Amino acid sequence: MAEKVPQNLANHTRYDPPFHFFALPVVFLTVIVAIVHFVQRRSPFSAWLVVFVIAMVIVTVQARMNALKVQDRLIRLEERERIAGLVSEPLRSRIAELTESQLIGLRFSSDAEIPALVQETLNKKLSRADIKKAIKNWRPDYFRV
Question: How many Cα atoms sit within 13 Å of 126 on the Cβ side?
Fold first, then answer.
């Protein structure tokens, strides 16, 4: 099995090749083809084809977004549990103040830097991007798609 490349801020974005490099381009190209077909051969069927293809774009993108939302909800739960085990009071009682976006950003931080980074995030209201930039010891997430 190939060794995984260590993740960091520069390379942590993940692509799903079948989705990003096949399904999405095919769906968007089909919209163009359907519109060209409609312009060249105006008919109720051609108009319906454009409507149908646009609906397929929405279905394709929405399916991806729904899966990512479920994944984000799981990350939120996991990070709340992890943070609760790594910080002490009074910081533990402030975990609920962290936004979903902040929790998603914190998932990449090592256990050792969680207490200080959570404190800084709450005090300065850091964004997900700012949190990721502040991480010194990156904790990889190889399961996100």
Answer: 21
